Structures are given as structure tokens and as C-alpha cells.
Amino acid sequence: MPAGSAIPAQVKASEGFARLRPMLASPSAMPSQMRQFGFEPRWSGVRTLVFYDGEMVRLADGTGRDISAAFPELIDLRRVLRRKPAILDGIITSQSIATGSDEDSLQRRLRVRRPNLAVLEETPIVFTAFDLLLVGGRWIMHWPFQERHARLQRLGLSGIFWRTSRRIRPGPGRDGEAFIAKRLDSVYQPGRQSADWLEIKPGGVKENSAIDA
Q1: Is residue 126 left, alpha or beta, with left meaning phi > 0 and alpha meaning psi from -120 to 50?
Q2: Nearest CA to 56 among 23, 91, 15, 101?
Q3: Which residues contact 168 (CB under 8 A, 6 or more apart)?
Q4: CB neighbourhood size of 49 (10 A)
Q5: What would you report as the CA-atom Rg of the chain, rounded to the nearest whole angstrom?
Q6: Residue extents of the structural domains in the chain
Q7: pLDDT band at 2, cuts 50/70/90?
Q8: CATH class of domain segment(s) 21-200
Q9: Residue 38: predicted pLDDT
Q10: I need a surface site. Which of 17, 47, 58, 119 has the fewest CB within 10 A?
Q11: Could you read off the pLDDT of 47-82 as tens digits, one per residue?
């Protein structure tokens, strides 16, 4: 699947679903050349790739495990994507607490094969998309991050269960927050931990946990 190539009509999301893994950030201090980076909040949740082949939405976590059944709310993303094949990179977080993350409740959701209404109401979720790998059946991983994010915004992901990651400006008053810094000209490197994406945590650098982005 070379970058920029069109996907034949018969190719389903399951083909990419079986092989793709998300790009990972490297733990780091704040970069010195801040203007070369875009900054986003660091969400705690389930890193998720969304695969849509024009008919069916499937979800995979960072290891490639199929988690579609655990989050049926996201199946209706197909309405927003309007039958145009797409692959989104993002994170599922819980909305059950003010900060938008509750890892214990998300883990409970993942253990339920087919959640009923009570489970869905107990742990409401939202998918935050922060990258776009394929749109309209065409790979764009070779595009600079700034252009991919701009194209992602044009999808208009705004709803109860999905949204697009907002860009933020680190500075005074944000000392206790964690960020992901993404080099604006960076290409998407699936399955690789890259210095083009930096994970910046308050109070020192720590390793990613298995559930975090």
C-alpha cells in the first residue's frame, strides 16, 4: 500500500486493519524550536485506529486488536464519512469524569464483549481524532502533518461521540499539563516511535503506559 496510491474498489478496510499500527511519540523535554511543532493535549485512553471502507466501520487498538464490539457508538461514524473510505488515528476516552479520562472504566468496557445500554450509560465515551491516514480511498500518510490535520478538520467530526483534536499553545498556566508535540512537516510513520512526535509530561519524562496514546 504505497503512500498516495488509490485503493481499488474491492479492497476492504480489513486489509489495512490487519497490518497498520499507530505512530508513537517519543518521551522528551519541550523542543527548542517550538514554531516547528503543533501541540495537542495528551489524552489518557485507548489509542484507536478507525477503518472505514465505505460500508463498515472497524476499530483496532494500538496492538491491532479488534475492539469494534466494545464501542458500538462509533459505528455511526460512517454517516459523517459519507461512504468515502478513510482511516483515522485517535484515542477513545471516557466522559464519565471532568477531565475526560477514566482508564478503569475504559478497561471494564473492553472486557465486555457486547455492552448493553446500562454499560454504555455508565461509561460514556468520545473518540478524538488527531490524524488522517487515508481519505476518499487515497493514502495521505506522506503528506506533512499540518496538511493531514487540515484535511481531517474538513471532515467535520463534531458530535456526541466524536471530535477532532484541538491545537493548543503551551505557556504560562499550563505547567501541570502534558502535551504531544508534532513536527508540522512530519510524515506518518506507522508502527514507529519517532522523534517527530514528542510526548512532554509535567514533572519529568515518563514512559508511555500500555493504554495511553
Answers
A1: beta
A2: 15
A3: 39, 40, 41, 174, 179
A4: 24
A5: 17
A6: 21-200
A7: very low
A8: alpha beta
A9: 93
A10: 119
A11: 999 999 888 899 999 999 999 999 999 999 998 888
Which residue has cell 488515528? Answer: 89
In angstroms, the CA 162 to CA 156 distance is: 10
- Phi and psi of 186, rounded to 5°? -80, 140
Question: What are φ and ψ of residue 14, in 5° steps?
Answer: -60, -25
Rounded to 5 degrees, what are φ and ψ at 176?
Answer: -95, 5
Candidates 77, 38, 63, 49; CA nearest to 162 is: 77
- The C-alpha cell 498516495 sits at 4
* H helical segments located in 123-160: 145-154
Q: What is the pTM of this model?
A: 0.82
State how far the alpha carbon of 68 is from the alpha carbons of 99, 112, 150, in Å. Answer: 24, 11, 27
- Cβ(88)–Cβ(24) below 8 Å: no
Alpha-carbon dihedral 77, 81, 85, 91, rounded to 10 degrees: -50
Supply the pLDDT for residue 114. Answer: 83
Q: Confirm if 89 and 23 have CB atoms less than 8 A apart.
A: yes
pLDDT tens per residue across span 76-123: 999 888 888 999 999 999 876 534 456 777 888 888 878 888 888 888
